[in-house]
Write a structure and sequence with these properties.
Number of helices: 4
Shape: elongated
Structural class: mainly alpha
Strand content: under 5%
Order of helices and strands: HHHH
Length: about 90
């Protein structure tokens, strides 16, 4: 399988052990259809990086946009809270 939704569907149907992004797995975990294993080996990663020129460091628009990004993309998204609740 090469689609996250497909992998989750196969796992829920009893397809064995697999890996799935937490945002896909969270609803299944919440309903008790999937159980996280090996969570101690999960690696925190961040895929959102903001770069801007040094000359704009004090720009209020840039600061406001970065504040907005912090609100929209929290350090630990809510779906991770569901998956790693017992950790």
């Amino acid at each position: 399988m090469d689609t996250s939704d497909g992998v989750a569907a196969v796992l829920v149907a009893g397809g064995g052990v697999g890996i799935s992004p937490t945002y896909i797995a969270a609803p299944y975990v919440k309903r008790g259809e999937l159980v996280p294993i090996l969570a101690a080996f999960a690696v925190d990663r961040s895929s959102m990086i903001a770069l801007w020129p040094e000359s704009r460091r004090a720009n209020p628009n840039v600061k406001a946009f970065l504040t907005f990004l912090d609100e929209v993309f929290p350090a630990r998204p809510p779906w991770d809270e569901v998956v790693f609740a017992g950790q």
